[in-house]
Write a structure and sequence with these properties.
Elements lengths: L1 H33 L4 H4 L5 E7 L11 H5 L3 E3 L5 E3 L3 E7 L6 H14 L14 E3 L6 E3 L9 H5 L9 H11 L3 H4 L10 E4 L5 H10 L17 E3 L15 E4 L8 E4 L15 H11 L17 H6 L2 H16 L32
Parallel strand pairs: 4-7, 7-8
Antiparallel strand pairs: 1-4, 2-3, 5-6, 9-10
Helix pairs in contact: 4-8, 6-8
Length: 360
Amino acid sequence: MLKTSLTAIKYTCVFQEFADAVFQMVTEKFKELTDNLTSSHARHKVLAGIVMTRGKVPRRKISKQPDDWERSIFARQKEGGYKLKDSILFHLYISTPPCGDARLNSHREARAELLHSRPLNRKVRGHLRTKIESGEGTIPIRTCHSIQTWDGVLQGEHLLTMSCTDKINRWNILGAQGSLLSHFIEPIYLQSIVLGSTHHVGHISRALCQRLEDVVQLLPPYRCNQPLLSGISSTGFRQQGKSPSFSVNWTLGDSDLEVINATTGKGDLGSSSRLCKRALYTQWAKLYGKLSTRGSNLQGAPSMYCEAKLAAEPYQAAKRQLFKALRKADLGTWVKKPPEQDQFLPTAEGQQTKALACDF
């Protein structure tokens, strides 16, 4: 028993060191990238980043050397398609618990524990929530909600978007790669989630990872992923007040940060973001036909975005099982966006991306 306890303590200390290293990498990179920006653009309400490591050893395996990143992280499979090499792991850092159930009820449970009162009733835990458009916070999904339509949005109806808690929970079942990349690769799951501030680790773990583990039925390679969860040694700085009207993004290989108007999804000069649906679909279309696919029902050259997504049949089957499990657990019904948002073609050479495809 003593040996087991010492092993657990040693493991906890090593993972804490690793979590702090992930935090340092993300925050230092953000500071480096924003040194030349105006003071307003260098401020942030929420900071998030994904770090890739080679192997499970912390710190010294978090490499910034170009040679490491130039080597392929995928291995070809005999049956077609690709999978991540076993040594490749991804870790998500978020400066605050993600919006939705993880953030909301984390505060409540921490307060109840502090006051030695009974924990929250399960009925108020785990429910799907949507973001408030042009505002802060989330609201629970109504039991019976109307179908969202593009006509309604154009006439001023609020466009419902799922909370970040729900989206990360979805990643832990379907993978973070999405439907398009699942044409080529097996699901990519997060190895760990590091939070800059935590209030009740147990609840956050339930919200992000465990809500559906007993009810969802999945076929391999899909599964209920259980990433390691940790806070950091020192609470990160949090900007108080309302979220800014802009967001910034950067990925390894990008020459610079991209600053985007959070209301329009466009840059300062009116250009569409490199992260909008059409931009990403255009990149994907260039890959299709050059790479071997797995479980794809797409014939010929890629056509409309929505058709390419639906053609990833194993992914779509797993998604249906996820939505069914949510309803079975009485956690709500996943809100779908208007279908018109996905009805577009890849951008032709020299063609401008239309605003319709600028939803993130």
